[in-house]
Amino acid sequence: MARPLLRGDRLKAAREAAGLSRDDLAERLELSSPARVRVWELCLERPRPRFVPRLAVAVGIEPLHLLDVDPDDPPLAALRLAAGLATNEMGAPGVSVMTYVRLEDGRPGTEPTADAVRAVAALLGVDEVRVRAAIRRSRRDHAPLAPFGG
Fold this sequence. Notes:
Shape: elongated
Helix content: 40-55%
Low-confidence stretches: none
Distance between the termini: 27 Å
Order of helices and strands: HHHHHHHH
Strand content: under 5%
Number of strands: 0
Number of helices: 8
């Protein structure tokens, strides 16, 4: 499962707009070195999920704006990253981690139960309508392509 990429150009632009140096941002995030900010801005590495919302707060933008997704129609993985959660943190009463992974992967199948949608929404801190839309987006993004000429 490919998670959405952090847009290094957006991080750099937001950092600069906030008047922060890489050193300033590293200090706010309690990083050992500004080199970490540099590799994120150059897209040489991805930050751990827990850093996405922290980065967004530090530079004054919404977490989804840091990701290479449409903020108005994000896939489920983007909502998870915006919440700063790793996949293994997505289990809760009503939804197992494996059920969540199937939803994020966009695997076709039966619709998720109301309990599963409610649990995912609670974990992500968004409403159920947003979760259902993100599940649909994940399925569209992962739908098999039609054969050439077909």
